């Protein structure tokens, strides 16, 4: 497995430049993972399959789903791609490398866990600030247009918020100076995580049922369901920041009421 991966990597670094891999390669991987993981939830919602696991009874109209997709394509090509192209020197400056040998799995996993923790911390505070009156009205309300989220709404946001999300995602790698392989893997798991958090379904196999302190779809769906001043649940990945700072009280109270009713 490791040998196969190394020879595939050798092929990439022999045939493509660092710039092509870091910018165009990252963009292609991001688009593929994002749309391949997000689109099935649109199909599920339209077909009404697995509806017993759907968190909210309301469905999005095909027009609303279509608007989300067209806006996403516009922003991905008009904002994400140019940002990736111009930030290449920053990636190089932060010590990104693509040479062989690939880093050990221990290093890769250790760094990715660290990236998740730091991203969650930065996202939590940034997200709380986005819920102040002016910023919510002028920036963050775009992301909250969908009170019943579906996978693809995870990246549906104002361009200014897209830049903030990019910053929160890249700050961990900037601190450690990662291998491009680690950076790609981090991007893949982070996209899968945020698509899952917005998917609108709470399955028995959802990661929140297995990973302690993990937020996931049920936790973030609550954030979209409520008015911006009352929502709470601001974290992106974990639940402990909201618990420490008391911004999950509404969610916990509701859970306690539901439990008492059953
Ligand atoms: Zn929000
Ligand atoms: Zn959201």
From TrEMBL:
Biological processes annotated in GO: 4-alpha-methyl-delta7-sterol oxidation; sterol biosynthetic process
Compartments it resides in: Membrane
GO CC terms in record: endoplasmic reticulum membrane
Major location category of this protein: membrane
Keywords: Membrane, Transmembrane, Transmembrane helix
Fatty acid hydroxylase domain segment(s): 113-247
TM ranges: 19-44, 72-91, 103-125, 162-187
GO molecular function: C-4 methylsterol oxidase activity; iron ion binding
Protein family: Belongs to the sterol desaturase family.
Full protein name: Fatty acid hydroxylase domain-containing protein
Protein source organism: Cucumis sativus
């Amino acid at each position: 497995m490791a040998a196969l991966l190394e020879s595939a990597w050798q092929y990439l670094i022999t045939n493509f430049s660092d710039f092509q891999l870091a910018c165009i390669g990252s963009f292609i991987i991001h688009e593929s993972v994002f749309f391949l993981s997000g689109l099935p939830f649109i199909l599920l919602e339209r077909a009404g399959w697995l509806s017993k696991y759907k968190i909210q009874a309301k469905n999005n109209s095909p027009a609303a789903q279509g608007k989300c997709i067209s806006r996403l394509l516009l922003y991905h090509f008009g904002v994400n791609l140019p940002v990736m192209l111009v930030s290449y020197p920053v990636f190089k400056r932060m010590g990104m490398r693509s040479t062989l040998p690939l880093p050990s799995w221990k290093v890769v996993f250790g760094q990715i866990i660290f990236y998740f923790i730091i991203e969650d911390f930065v996202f939590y505070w940034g997200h709380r600030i986005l819920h102040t009156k002016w910023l919510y009205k002028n920036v963050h309300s775009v992301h909250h247009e969908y009170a019943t989220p579906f996978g693809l709404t995870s990246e549906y946001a104002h361009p200014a918020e897209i830049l903030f999300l990019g910053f929160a995602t890249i700050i961990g790698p900037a601190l450690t100076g990662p291998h491009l392989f680690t950076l790609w893997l981090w991007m893949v798991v982070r996209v899968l995580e945020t698509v899952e958090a917005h998917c609108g379904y709470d399955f028995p196999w959802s990661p929140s049922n297995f990973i302690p302190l993990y937020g996931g779809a049920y936790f973030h769906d609550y954030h979209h369901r409520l008015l911006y001043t009352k929502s709470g649940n601001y974290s992106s990945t974990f639940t402990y920041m909201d618990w420490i700072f008391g911004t999950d009280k509404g969610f916990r109270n509701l859970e306690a009421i539901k439990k008492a009713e059953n």
